[in-house]
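Weekly structure sync - notes
Attendees: PM, LS, DV (DV joined late)
Agenda: review two folding runs queued last week.

Item 1: First target. Sequence and structure tokens pasted below for the record.
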Amino acid sequence: MIKPIVRDAFFLNQKSEEATWADLAVAQDLEDTLKANRERCVGMAANMIGYRKRIIIVATGFADLIMINPVITEKSGPYETEEGCLSLPGVRKTTRYNKITVRYLDKKFAEHTQSFSGYIAQIIQHECDHLQGILI
């Protein structure tokens, strides 16, 4: 289901809770909502659509990747950049890392550890910040 985008900073500043099997519908709502906002959005966290659950989606260019309970376990190559957010107006400066390794669960709750670099790594970091209640 396509959900409205949350713009309430108080809600967005709260840490998200661990996701479980019972939260799989949230992943589908993220997929539907990203698809509806694709022209202006490359990733989303569940709190952006009203769920304080540790689930994100990232548009990788060839497929949308759902990550349940993602944890960045390694990062290297810090750089300064500017980012926008669908939940907030404007653009803000932030520090990101060029290469990251992420441990996460897929929609079947199979565990993965995968490395990402460049723009995809940046998107993942932005969405993982959302899960921690961090707004750029």
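Item 2: Second target, run right after the first with the same settings.
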Amino acid sequence: MHCKVTSIQILPGVFMLTDRMGMHMTLLVGTKKALLIDTGYGFDDLLSAVRCITPLPLTVMLTHGHHDHACGACQFPKVLIHRDEEGVFDYYANNWRSRVWQQAKAKGLDLSDWTEEQFVQTACRNAVFTEETEMDLGGMTAQLLHCPGHTKGSLCVYVKERELLLPGDDMNPTTWIFFPECEGLGTLISSLEKLEKLPFRQVLCPHHDKLLPRSEFEAFLSGLSRENVLSTSAPAFHLWEGKKVYSCHPQPHFTLCYDWDKLPENWK
């Protein structure tokens, strides 16, 4: 396993790590401890990348259990995840590894440091369940918040000293809530409204490579009104066979793909 992770410091003590598949993770480094948020696709020596930045005691957490966030979890003694993600984590971090391998091959990535058998048979059995909590990293506090939407057990992180929100996959330039384990749009909106009450100034999405201002979050949430969602929706059935998947635009350059059958009943 090689380390092909790139890293940039985007705020004091806040680093964006990017694996060879292009997945972004966040490393928070305080004066006493460090917190790694998500573990990517699992092809890279993520611990070595972290240790190039800090020798501090490390905690690892997952915003949720999907493969692009969790397949690298096996590289660490334990990872924190919300209890409601147990089944999602087990399914995607273990049973989807063959699909992840094929995705990487289809992208033409250099996987010469792996064999397919090695990658597919690597197991992630190290989840430790957590609820909402606050972590003192030393001069930096990470507040873990349960925000169901993208999945039932999604966790978001608020870093008050940096006025920074990490919304996980509850907000991305393209946000997906049509998988079977996804919650409905009403639940997502409730979680985003909960986050909006926090005094953050910037947002860092895992599928975007730049900090976004708070105004982008507010516009995204405002764009999830019934009128806007239904007026901008178009079928996207190709995303999941047998499901009524639609896409809409909460704001320019942002797309939400959702399960029509999980819309609030009074919206239909």
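Discussion on item 2: The mean pLDDT is 96.
Action: LS to circulate a short write-up before next sync.
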